[in-house]
Design goal:
The complex is a heterotrimer.
Chain A: H1 11-26, E1 32-33, H2 47-56, E2 62-67, H3 74-86, E3 90-91, E4 100-104, E5 117-121, H4 135-143, H5 148-161, E6 172-174, E7 178-180, E8 198-203, E9 208-212, E10 218-220, E11 247-251, E12 258-262, H6 265-275
Parallel strand pairs in A: 2-3, 2-4, 4-5, 5-8
Antiparallel strand pairs in A: 1-9, 6-7, 6-10, 8-9, 11-12
Chain B: H1 8-24, H2 34-40, H3 42-52, H4 57-66, H5 71-82, E1 100-105, H6 155-161, H7 189-198, H8 201-212, E2 221-236, E3 241-260, E4 268-277, H9 281-294, H10 311-317, H11 320-328, H12 335-361
Antiparallel strand pairs in B: 1-2, 2-3, 3-4
Chain C: E1 5-14, E2 17-27, E3 32-36, H1 43-50, E4 58-65, E5 69-72, H2 78-87, E6 89-92, H3 96-99, H4 106-116, H5 122-135, H6 152-164, E7 170-174, H7 182-199, E8 202-207, H8 210-216, E9 219-224, E10 227-233, H9 234-239, H10 244-254
Parallel strand pairs in C: 3-8, 3-9, 6-7, 7-8
Antiparallel strand pairs in C: 1-2, 1-4, 4-5, 9-10
Classes of the chains: A alpha/beta, B alpha+beta, C alpha/beta.
GO molecular function (chain A): 4 iron, 4 sulfur cluster binding; alpha-D-ribose 1-methylphosphonate 5-phosphate C-P-lyase activity; metal ion binding
InterPro entries (chain A): PhnJ
Family (chain A): Belongs to the PhnJ family.
C-alpha cells in the first residue's frame, strides 16, 4: 500500500494526536478532546485505539493486537492486518515481546513492564455518561470534582443487590483527582491498571484520549464497608490449569456442557508450552 | 472439541471473497461502470459527496459501486479517503449570489428578480412507474432556452432592504473545521452549520419534520431554494488575489421564519440556513429548519424540550458514519463483559437463594 | 456578632425588564427572612441570585464562611461556590421534582450530599438517611423506594431531608408549600418550623403566601416590580402595613 503514509495517518494528524497524548499523560485520567479522523474501519470498532497506535508506532515496534484477550478474534485480526499493511511493522502474539499492544476489553495477564505501551479501544470514555447524559454537564462535574453522583450509583447497587453490581468498565479514581472509565475491561483487570507500562485510551467516535502514566495511582471506587473486589469465574482453566487468570466460558454442547478457558490466549498457550 | 477462538483469519478472507462476488452479481449482466453511476445515479453521487464532505463525483461513484449501493457505506469510504488528504488551506467563501442557477424557487414571492426557475425537478411529476425505462431507449433532448442575463439576487436581500429580516452578524475569526478539531459544545453557529451539512439526510429530515409537527415549531417559509454552480477560489498570499480552482454544484436554502420582537427591537422575520454540496435539496431544506430550531437561545425563544432545539442532542447524533459504526459494533464479540455479567447474576441468584433458605430455616 | 449573610445593592435585569433592583439586607444567625410579593415581583430572581444560580448585574452577597469569615459569594470561583452549596447551604424548590433525583431511591437522595462531601461508609450513610427519613416523618421502610411512588407532601419532605442532612447553616426556600393542598401544607409548615428551631437554621423563604411567612419568618421584605417597598418584623408589617401595596396584599389575604 504505497498510496498512504506510514501507519496510514498523515504526519500532521499524528502530531495532533501526539499532542493530545502528551497532554493526557500530563493530566492522568483527564479526557483530552482530539480531532478524531475517519478511519477505514467503522466507529465503535476501535478507531480511537487505531489512531493512538498509528500516532505512536515507529518502524522498529513490535505490535500485538488482542480483542477479548485473544489474538485470533476477528476484529483483532483485522486491526493487526491493517498495521501490517500500512506500517509494515513486525507483529507478535507474545505479550512479552510486544512493544505496543492494542487491546479491546482486556489487560494481558502477563505483567507489563517499562517500555511497553498498552493502547485501549474505548467506546464511551465518560464514566458519568449513564448518570448524566449531557457532555456540557459532565465536563463541568469533572472540572469541579463533583462526583457525588458516581457513589449514588454504587449506593443504589448495594441497596438493591446487596453488592456493587458493576462488573466491567468499573470506574476508578486516578491520582486522587479524575474519575475515569477504564474501558469495558472486566473489573478483574482493574488492579493491573497500576502498571509499569504507559497506558493510553483512545475513543474515536467520542473524540477523546486519556492516559495513565507508569506507576500512576488508580483506585477502584467503593465503600469502606463494601470494598472493591476483583472477581472472576471460580474455576481453573480447562486447558492450562491456571487458577488466577480471567476465564471465558465456552459452551461445548447443547446439553448444558461448558468449559472455562483463559481469555488471554497467549498466556494460556505459553503455559501449555512450558508444561509440555 | 473447542475451536471457537481459532479460524478468524480464514473466516475473514472467505467472507471478503464472497462479498466481492455478491457485489458483482450475476456475471451475465454487464458490469456497471463508474462513469455510468456518476452520470445516471447523480443524486446518489451528490448525497455521498454532501455527507462525505468531499467534492469528487468520480470517487463518490466508485464508493457507491464498491458499497453495492449502500450510501452510508459509500459516505464512509469517501470520508476515510478524504481524511488522509493533506489540507493546504481554506477557500474564499463562495458567493452563492453569483451562482449560475439551474433551479431557483421562492415560496414567499410569486415573482422576483431573476425569476422562478423550476429546473430538473421531481416536484410536479406524477409518481407513476415509467415502464418505458425498463426497455432501453434514448430520451429526446429537453427543450432549451437561453438564460436571461442579469444577477439573481437573494430573496432575503429584498426583505433586508426593508429591515424586515434579522441581520446576521459577521462571523469572527477563522471558521472552525470539524474534520480537524474535535466538536466542542456549546458550538457556535458556524460549527453547527458545518455539522448539519455533513449530517445524515434521514436524521435531519426527521428532525425538521418534527419541528413542523410542533416539536419546536418555527413557522418556516421557503424564502428561497437555489441549486447551481459556483466557483471556488483560493487566496494565494504571494499573488495578492484569489484564483479560481474549479466549480462545484451547491444547493442553498434560506427560510423566512416567524418574527421575533422585543421592547427594544421592532418585529422582524428570522431565518434558517441550509447549504449542501450537490443537488441535495431535501437535505438543504431540512438543514435550514433544524438550524432555525437550534437558534432559540440567540433569538430569545423558549426551550420547549424539542429534540430539534437540543444542540447537543442534534450534533452528537447527526453523523451517520459515527452512528452506524457504533450501532453495528454491538455485533463484535463481547464475551468478556458478558462473562462478568454472567458471573455476577449467578452469584446474586445464589445469594438470593441462600437468603431464602436461611429465612425459611429461621 | 457578624451577620450570616449581608446583601448589598443586588440588581439583576433581563434586557430591559427588571428582575430585582438595589436589594440590601442582613440575615442574622438563626433568623428566618420572608420575601413576599406576587409573581413577577422579582422575589425568585433575588433568591436565585443569592444562591449563586443566577449572576446578578451588580451588588454583593457576603456569606460568613466557616473557614475564612465573610466572603463575597459572587466573586468566589465556581468550585468554591459549589462546595458551599453542598455543605453550608440548602435549596428547597417549590416542585420537589426539581430538587430530587426521581430515578434513584429515597435513601440515595438523602445520601447523595453526604457522598458528595466524602462519606464512604455505606452503613453510616444508610443509617443517617434512615434517621433523616424518620425526622421528616417518612416511614424508614420506604428507604429503597423511588420518590415517584411518594405523595406530593412526602416528596417535599424528602427534599427537605436531602437538603438538611449535611447540617447546612443557610436554607433558601422557593415557595416550599406551593402546589400542596391545605392540610398537607399545614403539616409541612409545622415540620419546617420545628427543624428551623431545633437546628438553629437561618433561612430565606420566598413565597406569595402570607400564612407561610406568618408562621416561619421573623422578618419580612415586601417586593413589588423588583424593588423592596417595605420591610420589618413580620407581625409588625402584617398587622400594621405602611406601604399601600402591602396594605393591599394583607387585606386581600387575611380577610379570608
Amino acid at each position: 500500500m504505497t498510496d498512504y503514509n506510514f501507519a496510514y495517518l498523515d504526519e500532521d494528524t499524528k502530531r495532533m494526536i501526539r499532542r493530545a497524548i502528551l497532554k493526557a499523560l500530563a493530566v492522568p485520567g483527564y479526557q483530552v478532546p482530539f480531532a478524531s479522523r475517519e478511519m477505514p474501519m467503522p466507529y465503535g470498532w476501535g478507531t480511537g485505539g487505531v489512531q493512538v497506535s498509528a500516532a505512536i508506532l515507529t518502524p522498529e515496534d513490535v505490535m500485538k493486537v488482542i480483542d477479548q484477550g485473544a489474538d485470533d478474534t476477528t476484529n483483532a485480526v483485522s486491526i493487526r492486518r491493517f498495521f501490517e499493511k500500512t506500517a509494515g511493522v513486525a507483529t507478535t502474539t507474545r505479550t512479552a515481546e510486544a512493544t505496543v499492544i492494542q487491546t479491546r476489553h482486556r489487560i494481558p495477564e502477563t505483567p507489563l513492564r517499562e517500555g511497553q505501551v498498552l493502547v485501549y479501544q474505548v467506546p464511551i470514555p465518560e464514566p458519568l455518561r449513564f448518570l448524566e447524559p449531557r457532555e456540557t454537564e459532565t465536563r463541568r462535574m469533572h472540572a469541579l470534582e463533583d462526583y457525588g453522583l458516581m457513589h449514588v450509583k454504587l449506593y443504589e447497587d448495594i441497596a438493591r443487590h446487596g453488592r456493587i453490581a458493576t462488573s466491567y468498565a468499573y470506574p476508578v479514581k486516578v491520582e486522587g483527582r479524575y474519575v475515569m472509565d477504564p474501558s469495558p475491561i472486566p473489573k478483574f483487570d482493574n488492579p493491573r491498571l497500576k502498571s509499569e507500562a504507559i497506558q493510553l485510551f483512545g475513543a474515536g467516535r467520542e473524540q477523546r484520549i486519556y492516559a495513565l502514566p507508569p506507576h500512576c495511582r488508580v483506585e477502584s471506587l467503593d465503600f469502606e464497608d463494601h470494598p472493591f473486589e476483583a472477581s472472576k469465574a471460580d474455576h481453573p482453566c480447562a486447558l492450562c490449569g491456571a487458577t488466577g487468570s480471567y476465564l471465558d466460558e465456552v459452551i461445548t454442547d447443547d446439553a448444558g456442557g461448558r468449559m472455562f478457558v483463559c481469555s488471554d490466549t497467549d498466556f494460556c498457550a505459553t503455559r501449555r508450552g512450558e508444561a509440555a | 472439541m473447542y475451536v471457537a477462538v481459532k479460524g478468524g483469519e480464514a473466516a475473514i478472507d472467505a467472507a471478503h471473497g464472497w462479498l466481492a462476488e455478491e457485489r458483482r452479481g450475476d456475471a451475465r449482466v454487464p458490469e456497471l461502470t463508474v462513469a455510468q453511476i456518476r452520470e445516471q445515479m447523480t443524486l446518489a453521487v451528490d448525497r455521498v459527496m454532501a455527507e462525505g464532505s468531499l467534492w469528487d463525483p468520480d470517487l463518490a461513484a466508485l464508493a457507491i459501486k464498491q458499497a453495492r449501493g449502500d450510501l452510508i457505506e459509500a459516505v464512509f469510504l469517501l470520508r476515510a479517503y478524504r481524511t488522509t488528504l493533506p489540507r493546504f488551506g481554506a477557500s474564499v467563501p463562495v458567493d452563492t449570489g453569483a451562482m449560475l442557477c439551474d433551479r431557483r424557487v421562492s415560496a414567499t414571492f410569486k415573482d422576483l428578480p431573476g425569476g422562478q426557475v423550476l429546473g430538473p425537478t421531481f416536484d410536479y411529476t406524477h409518481r407513476l412507474l415509467d415502464f418505458a425505462l425498463m426497455a432501453e431507449g434514448e430520451v429526446p433532448p429537453a427543450r432549451e432556452r437561453t438564460a436571461e442575463p442579469g444577477p439573481v439576487p437573494h430573496v432575503v436581500a429584498v426583505l433586508d432592504r426593508e429591515g424586515l429580516i434579522q441581520r446576521e452578524a459577521e462571523g469572527e475569526g477563522p471558521v472552525p473545521d470539524l474534520t480537524r478539531e474535535p466538536l466542542e459544545l456549546p458550538a457556535d453557529r458556524a460549527l453547527r452549520l458545518q455539522a448539519l451539512a455533513r449530517g445524515d439526510e434521514g436524521f435531519l429530515l426527521g428532525l425538521a419534520y418534527s419541528t413542523q409537527r410542533g416539536y419546536g415549531r418555527t413557522h418556516a417559509f421557503v424564502g428561497e431554494l437555489r441549486t447551481g454552480t459556483v466557483t471556488v477560489e483560493v487566496e494565494v498570499p504571494e499573488l495578492g488575489f484569489a484564483i479560481a480552482l474549479g466549480e462545484v454544484v451547491l444547493t442553498e436554502c434560506e427560510t423566512v421564519n416567524q418574527f421575533a420582537g422585543s421592547r427594544t427591537e421592532p418585529p422582524q422575520f428570522t431565518r434558517g440556513y441550509g447549504l449542501t454540496l450537490g443537488r441535495t435539496e431535501r437535505k438543504a431544506l431540512a438543514m435550514s429548519l433544524v438550524d432555525r430550531a437550534l437558534r432559540w437561545r440567540e433569538l430569545g425563544e423558549d426551550f420547549v424540550g424539542a429534540p430539534a432545539q437540543d444542540e447537543e442532542f442534534v450534533l452528537s447524533h447527526c453523523d451517520n458514519v459515527q452512528a452506524t459504526g457504533f450501532l453495528e459494533h454491538i455485533k463484535l464479540p463481547h464475551y468478556v463483559d458478558f462473562q462478568s455479567e454472567l458471573e455476577l447474576v449467578r452469584r446474586l441468584r445464589r445469594e438470593a437463594a441462600e437468603g431464602a433458605t436461611r429465612e425459611a430455616a429461621e | 456578632m457578624t451577620p450570616l449573610l449581608e446583601v448589598r445593592g443586588l440588581t439583576k435585569s433581563y434586557g430591559r425588564s427588571l428582575g430585582c433592583a438595589e436589594v440590601s439586607f442582613d440575615l442574622w444567625p438563626g433568623e428566618v427572612m420572608g420575601i413576599v410579593g406576587e409573581s413577577g415581583s422579582g422575589k425568585s430572581t433575588l433568591l436565585n441570585c443569592l444562591a449563586g444560580l443566577l449572576e446578578p448585574d451588580a451588588g454583593e452577597v457576603i456569606f460568613d464562611t466557616r473557614a475564612d469569615g465573610p466572603r463575597d459569594v459572587l466573586r468566589m470561583g465556581e468550585p468554591e461556590r459549589r462546595w458551599l452549596a453542598r455543605t453550608d447551604w440548602a435549596f428547597v424548590r417549590q416542585n420537589p421534582r426539581d430538587g430530587l433525583r426521581m430515578g434513584v431511591s429515597a435513601g440515595a437522595n438523602v445520601g447523595e450530599r453526604l457522598m458528595a462531601v466524602g462519606a464512604r461508609h455505606y452503613g453510616d450513610i444508610r443509617a443517617r438517611a434512615t434517621d433523616w427519613l424518620r425526622r421528616v416523618e417518612i416511614d424508614p421502610a420506604r428507604i429503597d423506594d423511588r420518590p415517584r411512588t411518594f405523595s406530593g407532601g412526602m416528596q417535599q419532605r424528602l427534599q427537605i431531608a436531602r437538603n438538611l442532612v449535611t447540617g447546612p447553616r443557610l436554607v433558601f426556600m422557593d415557595e416550599p408549600t406551593g402546589g400542596l393542598d391545605v392540610s398537607v401544607q399545614a403539616r409541612l409548615l409545622d415540620l419546617l418550623r420545628g427543624l428551623v428551631r431545633d437546628m438553629g437554621l437561618s433561612a430565606v423563604v420566598v413565597t406569595h403566601d402570607l400564612a407561610v411567612v406568618r408562621l416561619l419568618a421573623h422578618r419580612i421584605m415586601v417586593m413589588k416590580d423588583g424593588r423592596v417597598v417595605e420591610e420589618g418584623l413580620t407581625d409588625q408589617v402584617l398587622d400594621d402595613p405602611r406601604h399601600p401595596y402591602t396594605q393591599l396584599l394583607v387585606s386581600s389575604v387575611l380577610q379570608v
